[in-house]
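Exercise: predict the fold of this chain.
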Amino acid sequence: KGLREAMLETVIPRGQGDRVMVVLGQHAGKVGHILQREPERSRALVQLERAGAGKVLALDYDGICHYVGGHEDD
C-alpha cells in the first residue's frame, strides 16, 4: 500500500538461464528463462517454459522481472 509505479524498478537477473516472469504484453504472467542478454538494446531473449511451449521472445527489460517462485510442475 502507498506505493506508486514510479517508485518501483524492474530487477533483471544477472545470469544466463535465470528465470524471469513476463509482466507486460500478451505473454504477461508467463515464466521463462534468459537465453541471451542484449544490454546495448536493453532487452533479453527469453524462452518461455511449459505454458509457453518453449517459444523464444525478444523482450525489453521493462517487460520482464526476476522470478523467484516455484516451477509450473510444483
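Check your answer against the key: The radius of gyration is 12 Å.
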